[in-house]
Amino acid sequence: MTHMNMLQAINNALDTAMAANERVLCFGEDVGVFGGVFRATSNLQQKYGKARCFNTPLVEQGIIGFANGLAAQGSVPVAEIQFADYIFPAFDQIVNESAKFRYRSGNLFNVGGLTIRAPYGGGIAGGLYHSQSPEAYFAHTPGLKIVVPRNPHQAKGLLLAAIHDQNPTLFFEPKRLYRASVGDVPDEDYRLPLGEAEVLKEGTDVTVLGWGAQMEVIEHAVEMAEKEGISCEVIDLRTILPWDVETVANSVFKTGRLVVTHEAPLTGGFAGEIAATIQERCFLYLESPIARVTGMDTPFPLVLEKEHLPNHLKVYEAIRSSVEF
Amino acid sequence: MTTTKAKVVYSPVFTDGAEFRIPTFKLLKQDGSLYKGAKAPELDKEKALRIYRAMVTTRILDERMLAAQRQGRLSFYMQCTGEEAAVIGSTAALDDGDMIMAQYREQGSLVYRGFTIDEFMNQLFGNELDYGKGRQMPVHYGSSKLNYMTISSPLATQIPQATGYAYGQKMAGEGHCTVTYFGEGAASEGDFHAALNMAAVHRVPVIFLCRNNGYAISTPAAEQFAADGVAPRAYGYKMDVIRVDGNDILAMHEATKAARSLAVEHNRPVLIEAMSYRLAAHSSSDDPSGYRSKDEEAVWREKDPILRMRLWLERKKWWTEDDEKQLQENMRREVLETMKRAQKRPPPALDTLVSDVYDEVPPALAEQFDKLKAHIRRHPDAYPKSAEHAKQTSKEGGLR
């Protein structure tokens, strides 16, 4: 066990994967000698050489196209997109290529070895283009897996699982927590399951569901609610696609109430998908409408980002409204 | 700070690069003789005939399958007509272990590598033997055993993938390269620029083979780019480049052979621009009479690459009128017979609808599939292709 922050845990996961398998390659903009703008790839080039950890030209569609080819060849590419906001030039390569490679070839070829890492989310005064949470765009694409960790221990275990998983996986890292979130991380290679949500706290009155950086927000909101005697069940979805319907539905059968929160805008956000599925599954068990606490339907603002974001106060209010409905 | 070794000037000097006109490499005249001063290529009889048979087979396959499309037996088709030398001449210069990542008009490469007519037909008719399990439109072939990446409709996406694939080959150190084919229209996509730049920076063993066939559907090359073709772009990436007469089988083979050794032995990516002409329509859905003249087509019909090679073979006494007649008859018969066979084969099983999305079918998708099967069981007449498969419940059918 070592006490470390989330960046160090991600770096440690990459190091672990590269040490175990020489076909694992890490690349992207500035990931080489500099170690990435957030330092997630620090010292990997020094340790494994320029052929296995390197800078690419500044072209996201090229990075992912290149990564798709490498994965098809049998290498295990871990491509970094510097900010999730800049993943869109690669949208075609991800949505039309990575996601469909196995299906369209009848499993003659696949890019299952591909992992794409990208820091996402707000709360760092990043404005429109250093704050977005684009998971819902990709959640509409069968063939992809989407994973979001909430702390260092989860980050290492889920990233190693993503690298070893035989499907192309997007790994969105909550950059607000890169240095803020610290904890004990096992030194060895370990993998947490993909496609499985985790119940962090059991409760009886209301289920509160989120992922990534929102888990910290939920923790504060739940503390406030519990002081008022509201018993909350807290779930970290962890994998957005394919998501764990069973765990969420089983919780709502018990509590009869659900609050879902994410930073991305409300309309078309992944909370809508969760709400639709859970009302279908749990219709006769629901005591109140499923609540969504999300970013507003605006581009991501700068000066007023606190107003925009679904903070603990907004989540707390939603919990109360749900219980008092 | 950016530095350059170029000389300094003290008044503003602009250049449009016009001084770098890239020549066209040719060996074979239309009458089958070599150009004066052209070096006779190293191509033995066996290989020459393998190439020629592949060209003729491709032409016959294209003619018959377009006719089948017109008769309504096939939903869609795309011909390689006019570009057989560009495609097969280059493929023949590779090692059969090299990876090919094509656009969609390179069925000649597959013919050359030994994809059987049955294999073509199974894909075209999307039957139960189609490797792609009936998921893609006709002509989206793929073969792992022949190192031919399954075709994807989006243009140019295969180009940066080829750079990545070749980087992996370089890391593996087994002396293989990747060749990627694309049209001059696809070269306008961002993926083209990304791919060439990354290949040059990382010294990747990849050959970029641009088939400049004059048209992207209806858009002529003159409305695709202002420059003299696609080749000059290589200068901007500091990449080796050669322009070749794409209807000249010997020049295509020679150029690609030399490009391959640059790529594999020296880790130098190469751009080849094959100058040719798309004699057929873009696809069976297109009608070129709306955007180009019969006269223009006639000029290029005179430059037929297959006839040119045949005349060369006849001069070398490697091919006769009788050989030609026999090959034509045999291929026509084989195409017709295999077409009938493929058409009669059943469609892929219903579970291919949900397999291969992931390595394993996720629970939510398995549930959707169970619902679909129950629906089909209630309306078997509406789903003649799958009513039989739907009778199996998931417990019996075993999807999960």
TrEMBL record, chain A:
<dbReference type="InterPro" id="IPR009014">
    <property type="entry name" value="Transketo_C/PFOR_II"/>
</dbReference>
<dbReference type="InterPro" id="IPR029061">
    <property type="entry name" value="THDP-binding"/>
</dbReference>
<keyword id="KW-0560">Oxidoreductase</keyword>
<keyword id="KW-0786">Thiamine pyrophosphate</keyword>
<dbReference type="Pfam" id="PF02779">
    <property type="entry name" value="Transket_pyr"/>
</dbReference>
<dbReference type="Pfam" id="PF02780">
    <property type="entry name" value="Transketolase_C"/>
</dbReference>
<feature type="domain" description="Transketolase-like pyrimidine-binding">
    <location>
        <begin position="4"/>
        <end position="180"/>
    </location>
</feature>
<dbReference type="InterPro" id="IPR033248">
    <property type="entry name" value="Transketolase_C"/>
</dbReference>
<protein>
    <recommendedName>
        <fullName>3-methyl-2-oxobutanoate dehydrogenase (2-methylpropanoyl-transferring)</fullName>
        <ecNumber>1.2.4.4</ecNumber>
    </recommendedName>
</protein>
<dbReference type="InterPro" id="IPR005475">
    <property type="entry name" value="Transketolase-like_Pyr-bd"/>
</dbReference>
UniProtKB/TrEMBL annotation, chain B:
<protein>
    <recommendedName>
        <fullName>2-oxoisovalerate dehydrogenase subunit alpha</fullName>
        <ecNumber>1.2.4.4</ecNumber>
    </recommendedName>
</protein>
<keyword id="KW-0560">Oxidoreductase</keyword>
<comment type="similarity">
    <text>Belongs to the BCKDHA family.</text>
</comment>
<dbReference type="InterPro" id="IPR001017">
    <property type="entry name" value="DH_E1"/>
</dbReference>
<keyword id="KW-0786">Thiamine pyrophosphate</keyword>
<feature type="domain" description="Dehydrogenase E1 component">
    <location>
        <begin position="52"/>
        <end position="349"/>
    </location>
</feature>
<comment type="function">
    <text>The branched-chain alpha-keto dehydrogenase complex catalyzes the overall conversion of alpha-keto acids to acyl-CoA and CO(2). It contains multiple copies of three enzymatic components: branched-chain alpha-keto acid decarboxylase (E1), lipoamide acyltransferase (E2) and lipoamide dehydrogenase (E3).</text>
</comment>
<dbReference type="InterPro" id="IPR029061">
    <property type="entry name" value="THDP-binding"/>
</dbReference>
<dbReference type="Pfam" id="PF00676">
    <property type="entry name" value="E1_dh"/>
</dbReference>
<dbReference type="InterPro" id="IPR050771">
    <property type="entry name" value="Alpha-ketoacid_DH_E1_comp"/>
</dbReference>
<feature type="region of interest" description="Disordered">
    <location>
        <begin position="372"/>
        <end position="400"/>
    </location>
</feature>
